[in-house]
Amino acid sequence: MSNLGKERIKEIEKITANILIDSNQNNKCPPDLYKICSANKIYVKRDLDNKISEELAKPAIEDNKSIIYLNPIVMLDNDKKRVRKIVAHELGHIFLHPDKVKTQNCSYSEEMIDTIEEKEAETFAEFLLLPEKDFELFWNVFEDKTKMEEFWVVPQDMISKRIKQLGLKNNKEPILSKILNK
Description:
Blueprint: H1 6-22, H2 33-39, E1 42-46, E2 57-62, E3 65-70, H3 72-76, H4 80-96, H5 98-102, H6 116-129, H7 132-142, H8 145-152, H9 156-166, H10 175-180
Parallel strand pairs: 1-3
Antiparallel strand pairs: 2-3
């Protein structure tokens, strides 16, 4: 998020909040990406026709349908956290950069994070998968990155970034420990 202006960050946060509300996923922890895609008529498919080769995923619009193609290799490693991050990232392109998606000028590989569009899509993914108020609430309960990773079903690097973005600190004793020790 470092090169994104505060106004653009707020705009992305508002867009993700509206998507969560419109797809009935606000206050659902963790948000269900299938329901978000379904509510927005976005299809997620394995790329069996070799439309992508080097990338992990690619959003497209075909026959007026938004589609996220996933490289079958992504599906083979059976890492739900990684798949959720990739799908949320591609949703970011569909919602934030629809013109580039229409022209097929958009794809995702983990090495391509330097452009503004990629940073925006990453920010979108973080805000969509880890909504601020819910994330803060659960951080105050768990205060453990590994537990947060398992609960939210996202890679730990996303958890670490979100903790830093929100300026969250570890208390000396997590709320859950206080409750259990009474």
